[in-house]
Amino acid sequence: MGILDQLNKEADDKREAEYQHSLLPTMHKIFATLKALLDYLNPLGAIEIKDYSSSMPQIGTLKQGGYKINTDGVGGFAEQNNLRQINLLYKLIGHDTFSYTMQGKLAGEQEADKLRSKNLNVETKTFISERGIPSTTFTIERNFLAMVKFEVDYDNSKIKLFIGNHENLTSIRNSFAASDITDEFLDEFVRYFIRKDRVFVARMGKRATF
Q1: Of 40, 41, 129, 175, which has the most beta carbons under 10 Å away?
Q2: pTM
C-alpha cells in the first residue's frame, strides 16, 4: 500500500469512527425527537399560520398538517445502524387559488423558475398585452409542500439541516457538529417548527444560508 492509499484509509477510518460514535447517535436522537413531536401533533390537528408570506401576501392564512416522516428518501425507513437522512414532509394548505400578471418575457421566465424552485402548484398563461408586451399570468394554488431534512455529511463529519417553505417561501441551510445538536437545540427547533417563536433561527443568525 502506497502512502497516499494509507492516508486515505486512515481518513476513511476516522470518518467512520466519527459517524459511529457521534453522528449516528445524534441522528437517532433527532429521529426520536421528531417521531415524538408527530405523535403529539397529529391528534391536535392543523396549526394555523396567519399571514404566511410577506413577499407574497396573496397567500394569506394557511394551515400546517399532514406530516410524514421517512429515513430512506422514498417514504420508508433505513436500517437504524445506517441512518443517514431524516425527512419530515408536511402540507401548508389554504383555500382556492390566486393569480397575478407580470410583463416582459425575461421577467416572466425568471418568475416561473423561482416558483418552480419553491415546489408550488402553478399554472402559467403567456400572452401579448394590448401594448404589445409579452406577459405571463401565474395562477397559484394555496396548497403546497414544506419539508425539514437532517442529513449526514459523512465527508465532513457534520449533520446538514435543510428547511424548505416553512415560512415566507424561504429555504434555510446549515451544517452542525454533532455536539451542537443538544437538547436545547432540539427544543428550540421544535418551538420554531410549531410556530411558537423564532429563537431557533435567531440563534443560527449569519450561519444560516437563505
Answers
A1: 41
A2: 0.89
Q: What does the pLDDT profile of the chain (210 residues) look like in tens digits?
A: 688 677 567 677 688 999 999 999 999 999 999 999 999 998 888 999 999 999 999 999 999 999 999 999 999 999 999 999 999 999 999 999 999 999 999 999 999 999 999 989 999 999 999 889 999 999 999 999 999 999 999 999 999 999 999 999 999 999 999 999 999 999 999 999 999 999 999 877 655 554
CA distances from 196 to 120, 163, 199 (A): 25, 17, 9
Of 190, 198, 187, 194, nearest to 47 (Cα)?
194
Angle, CA 32 vertex, CA 162 and CA 160 arms, to 5°: 20
Strand partners, 149: 87, 162
CA distance 24 to 100: 47
Rounded to an integer, what distance in angstroms lies between the CA atom of residue 181 and that of residue 158? 11
Report the distance separating Cα 98 and Cα 90, nearest Å. 21
Distance between CA 82 and CA 149 in Å, rounded? 16
Return the C-alpha cell found at 171.
Answer: 429555504
